[in-house]
Amino acid sequence: MRPDTPAENVDHTAEAARLERTAGLYPEDAEALLLRAAAHLELSGDRPAATKLYDRLLSSATGPSGLENPSLVRALKASNLWEYGHEAEARAIIEGVRASSPRDPAPWVIVAESLEAHDELEAAHETFTEGARLLLTDVPEPPYSTHPLLYGRHRVRRMLGLAHDEWDALADTLHSMPVSLDELHDPKRVWSLGSDDPADLEAEISRLRAELGAYREALSRPFPVAMLHWPADELTELVEAYPPLAAEYPSYEEHLATIEAALRELASSGTPNLGVVPGTVPSYEAFAASEGASPADPSLLPQYATTLAARGRAVAWPPQRGAACWCGSGRPYGECHGV
Question: What is the pTM of this model?
């Protein structure tokens, strides 16, 4: 389903079934595909079936491959459970997610928004703040993926009537829509919907349009602008099998340096949501076959990177503070390519 497909034109149950079948064909992408399938089941109203999918994913975490983001799956499961009456179990899972201190902002946002949706504003504020403190302390520029964390915290603080702090100010600067965050998150907005004054209603319509613009902007970038990274052994195999590609990759060290330089240049130009996606020769050959093209064609490389990113294979860049470098060296990013 395309992100701009109207919800009323989607058979969510059928789409979930299709994604489950696709996950069986591409086990390396099963986690991302089954999470999307669970989302469709939630939208269809079949929340118990969505929980079964989350449980299926979590049970696979003990297998040889494991899960890439178990905290995200647990957060989604908790949010779903609370929506159909399993509050106690949801709360227990949320506390477990918070205690695990995930380095990915998405689980923090999901559990905090779940608390917020059920009027647990103090707990939501604590959760947003914990995530921000963990992921954004001493970070010069918040990564694109952390923006919802700051926006959500700003929204809850407005509802609690708390004064602006440094992170609220940072959220204001990151927000680029015509209507400010203070206006969008104003608790009094709801009262304007019942006003008899046309000016009040017109102002609220303007705010809602700004919010819709922000959501559309996010949906237009559902996956990162990703740079293709070949691990050392894969790059050696690639250029040996397809000598014309040697001109693209003079050496492994230059390959890594080119990726980091390109990402920094994109970031400096204001491009958000950047990532690195690892390639493998077998999947690249399969992609070339599906396109009816030769793997030796250099123009196929960016298409391959985009396809992998769309399948959820990209790793966000820059990595979170203290996280391992994207290059696979095992060293922290700040001591490797982040120097």
Answer: 0.65
Tens digits of residue pLDDT in 276-325: 999 999 889 888 887 888 999 999 999 899 888 877 778 888 887 677 89
Helix (H) or strand (E) holding 252: helix 252-268
Beta bridge partner(s), residue 229: 278
Long-range Cβ contact pairs of 333-338 (< 8 A, separation 24 or more): 337/256, 337/260
* DSSP 8-state class, residue 6: -
At 259, the pLDDT band (50, 70, 90 cuts) reads: very high
Specify the residue for token string 């613009």: 213
Q: Taking the mean position of all CA atoms in its chain, how far away is CA 315?
A: 10
Rounded distance between C-alpha atoms, residue 135 and residue 242, angstroms: 41
Using CA atoms, how far residue 196 sits from 12, 191, 204, 205, 275, in Å, is 38, 11, 13, 14, 48
Cβ-based burial of 305 (10 A; exposed 0-12, middle 13-18, buried ≥19):
buried
Token pair recorded at residue 129: 């703040």
CB neighbours of residue 84 within 10 Å: 15
